[in-house]
Amino acid sequence: MCDAYYSNINYGNTRYDNFGYDSSAKRGAGAVLADAPGSEGFRGGIAENFVATEIAAALEADMYYWGSDGSAEVDLLISDGRSVVPMEVKSGDRFRAAGLKEYIDRYSPEKSVIVSRKGPRDGSVTHIPPYLVWDARRRLDWDGS
Q1: What's the topology of domain 43-139?
Q2: Which residues contact 96 (CB under 8 A, 6 or more apart)?
Q3: What average pLDDT does this structure show over 135-141?
Q4: Separation between Cα atoms, residue 136 and residue 127, nearest integer Å
Q5: Sign (positive/negative) of CA torsion 4, 86, 111, 125?
Q6: pLDDT of residue 78
Q7: Dihedral sign computed on CA atoms, order 91, 92, 98, 101
Q8: How far apart are CA 128 and CA 114, in angstroms?
């Protein structure tokens, strides 16, 4: 799993995606993350689990899930006891983060994050690729004390 920290690396004829799985595989975890037919229901859960595990290792934080009365949801809320950072995890290349937008509109958090394969970006919402979640403490200026 150490390949999870590198983006789109080629080893011979095998291509590893941002999560470190063989994206040319026809079955197993590589197939799930490589847009294999029928894998849609698993990719998001695997990505969310990966990110939650990395956040647990990188930060001293409590993690929660948020859902509105309607259908909006945010995958992870991370808290240091003083502030809450909503974090949406996206496993695909194209996505909408409607739940995150609703959370931001309601609660106006200082920081918010989307973890996706699109790569790092700063702005009103910080974008972190999965292979850099391990560095969340620095990227979020996380105090944790």
Answers
A1: Trna Endonuclease; Chain: A, domain 1 (3.40.1350)
A2: none
A3: 81
A4: 11
A5: positive
A6: 92
A7: positive
A8: 6
Measured distance CA(127)–CA(130) in Å, rounded: 10
In contact, 87 and 77? CB cutoff 8 Å = yes
Q: What is the tens place of the pLDDT at every residue in 7-51? A: 333 334 444 444 444 444 444 444 444 555 565 667 788 889 889
Q: How far apart are CA 65 and CA 38, in angstroms?
A: 26
DSSP 49-84: HHHHHHHHHH---EEEEEE-SSS-EEEEEEE-SS-E
Buried b (16+ CB within 10 A) or exposed e, 45-62: ebbbebbbebbeebbebe
Nearest-angstrom CA–CA distance, 133 and 139: 9
The count of other CB atoms within 10 Å of the CB of residue 113 is: 25
Q: What angle do CA 41, 45, 48 make, to 5 degrees?
A: 150
| Token pair for 100 | 């995150």
Q: Among 24-33, 60-69, 116-125, whose mean pLDDT is lowest? A: 24-33
Domain assignments of the chain as residue spans, ordered by start: 2-33, 43-139
